[in-house]
Design goal:
Elements (H helix, E strand, L loop, with lengths): L3 E7 L3 H12 L8 E6 L5 H14 L7 E5 L6 H12 L5 E5 L3 E3 L3 H13 L6 E3 L8 H4 L6 E2 L6 E5 H19 E2 L2 E2 L7 H12 L11 H11 L4 E4 L4 E3 L10 H8 L8 H8 L4
Parallel strand pairs: 1-2, 1-4, 2-3, 6-11
Antiparallel strand pairs: 4-8, 5-12, 6-8, 7-11, 9-10
Helix pairs in contact: 1-2, 3-6, 6-8
Length: about 280
Amino acid sequence: MNKICVLFPVYNRLDYIRETLPALCNSNNLSSFDLHIIQDGPRSQSDEIKTTQVENYIQQFISSNVYFTPRPHNLGLGQNLIQSKFELFATYDKIIQIEEDIIVAPYAIDLISKLYDKHKKAHDTLVASISCFGSAPYPKKVAKLSKLINRVEWRFYCLDKPTWKKIKVEVAQYNQLFLHSHGNDIPYKTRDHRKIRRYFSDILGTNVGDAFPTGQDACMDILIKTNKIPIFTVAVNHSRDIGIRGEHTKSPKYISNIENTTLDLFNPEVLYKKLSIPL
């Protein structure tokens, strides 16, 4: 068994997975990783039809290092991700998480692992992230390959076990307080978002404001920052977001970022050499 896990959480969106899973399974050096596809359970009978379609489609990709785990009950995205990390970190040293609506470049998994290994030498713990939303247009991309930004995008990122050990107690507490009640998932729309923001404000020691996100990724972001763990995101895109987003996705800046996304621009050998320059 490999010591690096790729976590690919799915639910009932077959239209996404038909595009994203083949791209993921076409990744360079995939045999060096274990891919865990973890499907959340259905909420209703109508959902069960869709989740069964997804489950049937996934079967063709199962192999010696590609594992599929269907949840018997619905946990919700936040709980599913948190529980998956608790389960997988019992075995693996680091997890690379990719959401189901992200198409990755063939070299991207290998790249994020190499970036992690490079910066692990300089830091005790690290979250390395490959952003889906880099804004550099084509002519500037090659010049910006070696640039890292001190932030993280929680759609496609690497998390190591030492970092998880530092934050897992608080993540579990957040999950227990806000994501489920009496063993049942609390849907996002019915959560007490005001109470969650007060909880985050107490952790940070400052008011986060009414627009602050309240999901599990926001919780991890806060805990990583308060523990002063370094985070990095490359400045250019190595993946594409095909998901349906909220109102902010209609902004000219967001649309420009998505239009500038290129998956097959870089020769991996040139890319790795460029990124070997001290950053």
